[in-house]
Write a structure and sequence with these properties.
The complex is a heterodimer of chains A (778) and B (228). With 778 residues, chain A is an alpha+beta fold. Chain A contains 19 helices and 30 strands. Chain B has helices at 8-22, 27-33, 73-80, 136-143, 153-167, 176-182, 193-204; strands at residues 52-58, 61-67, 99-102, 105-108, 121-123. The chains are: A alpha+beta (778), B alpha+beta (228).
């Protein structure tokens, strides 16, 4: 491969490297590239559609003759179906089709599982009809509590083998688990050195258990799909999905169709957060149901989950019970870390705890991280924004603070001393100055000493993620027409990040045109294969393909200009507005386009595999490790236990920042989701009845405008030499450290740790020993 | 005032769910929301259970729709009239995504029945601008990126438009806390709140506070359930 000299690094830590770049790739944009459109804080190009109510989501799709579907769900957490009949429902007013999704003899394993479904002229009529489904169950023993389910003798959740459901939302490289023992199924360990031995020799050891709750994605647009059969073996589906091609592939499989005969459309998407891959929801076969009802009824069918269904059967973030042991030698150097975790993904798999414990503080020589899935009779978990990481970060970061307190060390300095990532160390140091760390911690200490009622506290935590951008996955078509139109086309969906705007910026940058000259066509499977919006990979997978396609178009345009100007290709100077100059003459972009021999110049291109990383490799992969740290300030009322997060400083890296405004929006979102997770959210299951008690949005609390901190976002451009645009990703890393930093801040404020999320007033009062009969620190 | 006042909340309360609902609304304002919202002297004393016609003004245009009395205003707007601004998210007044203005006041359209708005003026997000032209507030939302997935945006804008109407010429005194109070019933999952606050303050002509996105004590009284 040809070698090219690149300037890589960040801030004032820049260096030259010789990088091997595939021959068909342009020289990557690096620190020496002076870009005028990419990186700018431009408003999103489709904003006007969203602020006027004209943006059409799957939720808004209405087709002629369309029917509304509703699903009957099992009210019991474990049961055998002894009778099922849909005859009554089939004959109900307005009903055009009914199907039984479960059969007599089936063993149902969670409250909310699909039983039967109908399609009717109106949604009210569909619900009326479900009441006419005749169904009888034999209740079976069940368990919904993670720790009880892990014990020997607990009711078995699954009777047969369990298949692992993986999506593009899962972190690449996470290993598959072993066969289960009872309800417990061990995942592969992460290990270096000998943690047990080192802990025995350690001068100081901190040991404690940390727990996190189940969090539900709760995208505002629920899971949903509209299916229309265009012919016997051809269909169109509108889906609320973050993976258009995952929906297509599942519909192809379910109905035995050819990929070319399935069109999937997602013009706009009301959030996903990891739960929306495939035609079905993680715990409900909505793709099959809508498709089958549509086929039976001979009419398009719309199936949107309601909020209750969204809460119980469309995925969640698993809980965790983590036993942590961390030890240091007499000099204060961390020498050993052992984390052993149980978590439940309900009937599903994937309750890991991310990479934080193993991969952030890499100077800890002896580490063992063990994690197991525990099956329970609850709706399956699925990837949720940085799967596993917020759970893992919470335990390890709070444990580090507790050990630091024991050793009378500054927890920030302890972190810097054990982190090898140059950028994360820089973020810790620069962030501390910006946040006023030293002064703030002194204020908190004074508050603890003076035993004042209102306390402030300050914490910090780290984020780790990788550049998981994929070569070859996104096929982008660049078109420049004879009339001067410029179109970028790809079948990617916009989950809310504004990816279409960024694609337009890249095209505009290459051609030196204003962004509003670029037409963006996305959100449709026919627009060319693309990636799902998962793993924080969209921008890094698609934008390099856009650049590569438009660079090829530009090469053709330069040749055209050279012929018109009567100069050699190398003598053509491409100027602002796409004006070409050479031989003392010049052509406007429009004049040049008119000279095309055909109607348009069209190039479809992709990107190569990631071709480099700097300054830090993601463990076990030939790609960049991206860094982030967050500092949090909390205020705690020690009389009432009321706690709020008042300030967060979020320092993040996402490779090259493609659009500062949109990126900051995403980071705000990560911090707010993390704050909500830290202080408010919790799925509550009734142990005796096995049902979710707060399957709504008034008792399942998500952060509102008054519950959030002031957020200061600092983005650092990092030139990693990784792909042609240098983009990486930000969605997931921005939510990883928030809850951990808040928990550390609460510890700083009140002097005792709250080792359980969410940190509620009750838990704070218990930790302070202010609840009679409580044991004190949790 | 002889209207049937068939509020959905009233129906639910009659069914014995008052305690559940009381826990999710402000007690002080709950009584007010029981009052008749809109009245129409010509409305029939009894309607249903079959579909009946209801007439009202939607985004400046006269509109009639025939729906059963149990149909919410939100469902009638979306499913019968093809309106796409207000969104169904929680279906029980907890998230604000379905907020519309009824005679100028922000209401959760999922908590009203279609027949409640007989004779009333209903404004959705589509009616905030002037035809295809965005209002200053809508344009500021775009400029500040006060939207991500966009699913909360219609309700967010409607609540903020009502706030700006309430403060009238006193916009320069508007505080970030007052904006947060006004949108405290509008849930967003993507995290747009800081940019929403910045957009509203800019349009109001207020100086953004130094802690533009941080929590403050409520500084204004109005909350969505108090009006009516």
């Amino acid at each position: 491969m040809p070698k090219k000299t690149l300037t890589v690094g960040f801030a004032d830590q820049l260096t030259s490297i010789e990088a091997e770049i595939p021959a068909d790739e342009p020289r990557p944009w690096d620190a020496d590239s002076h870009l005028t459109i990419v990186g700018k804080p431009l408003p999103r190009i489709d904003g006007h559609l969203k602020v006027s109510g004209r943006a059409k989501y799957t939720h808004d799709v209405q087709l002629p003759g369309m029917l509304y579907a509703a699903v009957l769900r099992c009210p019991l957490p474990c049961a055998k179906i002894t009778k099922i009949s849909i005859t009554g429902a089939e004959k109900a007013p307005g009903v055009k089709a009914a199907i039984a999704v479960a059969a007599r003899g089936d063993r149902i394993v969670f409250a909310g599982q699909d039983i039967a479904a109908v399609a009717a002229e109106r949604l009210e009529l569909a619900h009326d009809a479900l009441a006419l489904v005749e169904i009888e169950y034999e209740a079976l023993p069940f368990v919904v509590d993670t720790q009880l389910a892990a014990k020997a003798g607990a009711p078995s959740v699954h009777e047969g083998a369990v298949s692992e459901r993986r999506t593009e939302g899962d972190e690449p490289g996470a290993g598959a688990g072993a066969g289960p023992q009872g309800n417990v199924r061990k995942m592969p360990d992460s290990e270096r050195g000998d943690a047990s031995k080192a802990l025995k020799k350690a001068a100081v050891v901190h040991e404690a258990s940390y727990t996190t709750q189940v969090q539900v994605h709760n995208a505002l647009e629920t899971h949903g799909i509209v299916v229309r059969w265009d012919a016997k073996d051809k269909l169109t589906a509108w889906a609320s999905t973050q993976g258009i091609f995952s929906v297509r592939d599942e519909l192809v499989e379910i109905f035995g169709l050819k990929p070319a005969d399935v069109t999937v459309i997602t013009e706009f998407l009301g959030g996903g957060f990891g739960a929306k891959f495939g035609a079905s929801a993680p715990g409900s076969r909505i793709g099959f149901i809508a498709g089958e009802l549509a086929r039976k009824a001979g009419a398009p069918v719309k199936l949107m989950c309601d909020r209750h269904e969204e809460q119980v059967c469309t995925g969640n973030r698993p809980d965790s019970y983590q036993d942590v042991r961390i030890g240091a030698d007499a000099s204060g150097k961390l020498v050993a870390l052992h984390v052993k975790s149980l978590g439940t993904a309900g009937i599903g798999t994937g309750a890991g705890i991310g990479r934080n414990a193993f991969s952030v503080y890499t100077k800890i020589a002896n580490v063992l991280v063990e994690a197991s899935d525990v099956f329970t009779n609850a709706g399956p978990a699925t990837a949720m924004r940085a799967p596993g990481h917020p759970q893992g970060a919470f335990a390890i970061e709070l444990a580090i603070d507790e050990l630091a307190r024991k050793m009378k060390k500054d927890p920030l300095k302890l972190r810097i001393a054990h982190d090898e990532h140059p950028l994360r160390k820089w973020q810790f140091e620069e962030g501390a100055k910006k946040f006023g760390w030293t002064e703030a911690r002194a204020r908190a200490a004074a508050g603890r000493t003076g035993k004042t009622r209102m306390r402030s506290g300050y914490g910090v935590a780290a984020s780790i993620w990788g550049d998981f951008g994929r070569g070859g996955a996104a096929q982008v078509t660049a078109t420049v027409g004879r009339d001067g139109t410029v179109v970028v086309r790809n079948g990617v969906q916009d989950i809310g990040t504004g990816i279409g705007t960024v694609l337009a910026q890249v095209a505009a940058e290459v051609l030196s045109l204003p962004v509003d000259r670029i037409d963006v066509e996305i959100g449709r499977s026919g627009y060319g294969s693309s990636v799902g919006s998962g793993g924080s990979t969209t921008t890094s997978s698609v934008t390099p393909a856009v650049r590569n396609a438009f660079e090829q178009v530009k090469t053709k345009l330069v040749a055209l200009a050279a012929a018109q100007l009567g100069v050699g290709n190398n003598d053509v100077v491409w100027g602002p507005g796409g004006r070409t100059n050479g031989g003392g003459k010049s052509l406007t972009f429009e004049q040049l386009c008119k000279k095309m021999p055909g109607e348009a110049i069209v190039v479809t291109a992709s990107r190569a595999d990631t071709f480099g990383h700097h300054p830090m490799q993601f463990m076990g992969r030939p790609t960049q490790q991206i860094a982030g740290v967050q500092f949090a300030e909390v205020e705690v009322d020690t009389w009432t236990g009321a706690v709020r997060c008042t300030r967060v400083l979020a320092m993040h890296d996402c490779g090259r920042v493609m659009n500062e405004l949109l990126t900051k929006s995403q980071v705000n979102g990560g911090v707010i989701l993390g704050t909500s997770y830290a202080l408010l959210e919790e799925r509550v299951l009734d142990r005796d009845f096995g049902r979710m008690l707060n399957a709504n949005l008034e008792n399942y609390k998500i952060a509102g405008a008054k519950d959030i901190p002031e957020i200061d976002v600092v983005l650092t451009d990092v030139h990693a030499g990784n792909n042609s645009t240098g983009a990486i990703g930000i969605g997931e890393p921005s939510t990883i450290p928030t809850a951990a930093a808040i928990a550390c801040a609460v510890y700083d404020a009140i002097g005792v740790p709250v080792r359980s999320l969410p940190i509620t007033p009750a838990k704070i009062l218990a930790a302070l020993g202010r609840i009679p009969g409580s044991k004190g620190p949790t | 005032m002889t209207s049937p006042t068939l509020t959905r909340r009233g129906l639910l309360r009659g069914a014995g769910t008052a305690s559940v609902l009381a826990s999710c609304t402000k007690p002080a304002s709950d009584a007010d929301s029981n009052a008749p919202i809109v009245t129409d002297a010509n409305a029939p004393a009894e309607i249903g259970p079959d579909a009946a016609t209801v007439a009202f003004t939607l985004d400046g245009k006269a509109m009639t729709v025939s729906v059963e009395p149990r149909v919410t205003l939100l469902d009638a707007l979306r499913n019968d009239l093809g309106v796409t601004g207000p969104k169904l998210v929680c279906d029980r007044g907890a998230c604000g995504a379905c907020t519309v203005l009824v005679d100028g006041l922000p209401r959760n359209s999922c908590m009203m029945l279609a027949h409640d708005v007989a004779g009333a003026n209903v404004t959705t997000v589509a009616g905030l601008g002037n035809g295809d032209e965005l209002s200053a507030l809508q344009a500021a939302f775009v400029r500040h990126d006060a939207l991500q997935c966009g699913f909360c945006t219609s309700g967010m804008l409607t609540s903020c438009a009502a706030l700006l109407r309430r403060v009238g010429s006193g916009g320069s005194k508007l505080t970030a806390g007052a904006v947060r109070e006004a949108i405290s019933g509008n849930l967003c999952r993507c995290g747009t709140y800081p940019h929403v606050v910045a957009a509203v303050l800019e349009v109001a002509g207020a100086k953004p506070s130094t802690r533009s996105s941080g929590p403050q004590k409520p500084t204004t009284a109005p909350a969505r359930e108090e009006v009516g």
